[in-house]
Amino acid sequence: MNRKEHVLNAALLSIGLGYVLHPAGDVETFVTIVEVGVPVILGALFPDVDTAFGKHRKTLHNLPVLALFYVYPMQFGNLQYVWIGVLTHYALDMLGSKRGLALFYPYEEEFGAPFGVSVSSDRATVVTLAVTGVELVVAGLFVYREFVLASSLAAIGIQ
Ligand SMILES: [Zn+2]
Prior knowledge:
Blueprint: H1 3-21, H2 27-45, H3 63-76, H4 82-95, H5 124-155
The protein binds zinc ion.
Zinc ion binds at residues 47-48, 61, 89, 93.
């Protein structure tokens, strides 16, 4: 996908995550949207740096890069949530275009969904919105699962 779709996806995903994490729609929701939104949008823009440095859809579109952004905050205490932007960039590229990603780079085989639209398609925005919707459902299920688990542990007196 193009930069426009990646920013749209990351911004809507961040707004959705704000409401998934704090559904009240109050100040805490808004603060969460800002807290998550800036790093997620930056993360969503990062993989396409490989259009200038390296091989596009290979050098910065792979699982080792995602793992690096996932563990970086644990080691250094910053760049939280950037991995979400990188992950959603990969999802949009895989599900919303005809070409795959070299997920196991430097192994150069590209993996993608058996469907997708061309990056320049009129339907790119619709696909972007659909992918964002699916991502928010998945995020909601994760949060709900954590809530149920925490409630169950509390009910039996653990935590
Ligand atoms: Zn990309």
